[in-house]
Write a sequence for this structure.
């Protein structure tokens, strides 16, 4: 993502309240589109404003895009520097593609969308989101749409497998044409060894079929909760291991945490800060399993007592030729 991206207030662009109905949004768009259409308005900035109005309408006319956008509430103002928070779209269920999942099409009506739009909905306007449109043979009987959602789980679930209760919220229009959120609860089995970015398919849990047709599927994109100790890269996992100076230099056997419990690690001599020590097969389960990397850091004890200070002085004499600031 490029630096300096600015937040766009789509409600302000159309001149409507955040509580506006779909009819309010349509009326505001039609009025502004006529005003700024390049074929009618010859001012220099007319085309740019026409595109801004079109982008705002593309979001606010669609209940799913609008609900995703509304997550930011009134905490952001137009022109402020903006970066979407991590996993901002987790827990929302969408027909078609999930926000940020990309897509092709959807932007042809208004030209290219802004960087702000693409940071939320993906390049190309997330064309699949909000419905797949009519399909051949679907007028009488057809399979339901597939739905997508992102869910965030503890890393430990991928090590052991788990059974989780999930609450997903799906946007829809109420009787007054305003976006409302419908919640449904699911019991989901998290398979052992699942990776971040993988999709868990729940057969028949998507949109209802048409004319008695089979329902679509629900795809859950898996992400891991941020962890205080572990970092994940594919199936490999890294953890920082703090050593005393004598353990780092002389070698030692220490206990190291893993998401499935502590294990013993043999530290070779001369293992300085930053060295990665591999525990083969201790990463995420799989065929083959990933590895766990213990990344060495060296902790220096504070010299509080006279004996401790004397020990540092003796160390200084023993290593008098050591030049820590030498290039």
């Amino acid at each position: 993502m490029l630096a300096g991206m600015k937040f766009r207030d789509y409600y302000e662009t159309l001149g409507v309240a955040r509580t506006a109905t779909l009819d309010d949004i349509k009326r505001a768009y039609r009025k502004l589109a006529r005003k700024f259409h390049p074929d009618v308005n010859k001012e220099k900035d007319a085309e740019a404003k026409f595109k801004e109005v079109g982008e705002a309408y593309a979001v606010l006319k669609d209940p799913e895009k609008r609900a995703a956008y509304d997550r930011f509430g009134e905490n952001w103002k137009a022109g402020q520097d903006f970066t979407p928070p991590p996993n901002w779209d987790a827990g929302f269920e969408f027909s078609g593609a999930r926000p940020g999942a990309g897509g092709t099409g959807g932007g042809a009506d208004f030209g290219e969308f802004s960087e702000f739009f693409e940071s939320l909905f993906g390049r190309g306007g997330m064309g699949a989101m909000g419905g797949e449109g009519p399909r051949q043979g679907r007028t009488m009987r057809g399979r339901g749409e597939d739905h997508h959602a992102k869910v965030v789980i503890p890393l430990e679930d991928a090590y052991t497998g788990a059974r989780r209760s999930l609450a997903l919220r799906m946007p829809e229009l109420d009787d007054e044409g305003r976006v409302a959120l419908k919640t449904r609860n699911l019991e989901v089995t998290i398979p052992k060894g699942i990776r971040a970015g993988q999709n868990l398919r729940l057969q028949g849990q998507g949109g209802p079929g048409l004319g008695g047709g089979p329902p679509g599927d629900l795809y859950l994109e898996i992400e891991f909760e941020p962890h205080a100790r572990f970092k994940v890269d594919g199936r490999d996992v890294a953890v920082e291991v703090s050593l005393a100076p004598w353990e780092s230099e002389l070698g030692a056997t220490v206990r190291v945490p893993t998401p499935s419990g502590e294990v013993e690690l043999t530290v070779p001599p001369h293992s300085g800060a930053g060295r990665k020590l591999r525990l083969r097969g201790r990463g995420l389960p799989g065929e083959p399993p990933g590895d766990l990397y213990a990344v060495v850091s060296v902790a220096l004890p504070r010299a509080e007592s006279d004996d401790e200070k004397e020990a540092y002085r003796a160390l200084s004499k023993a290593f008098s030729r050591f030049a820590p600031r030498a290039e």
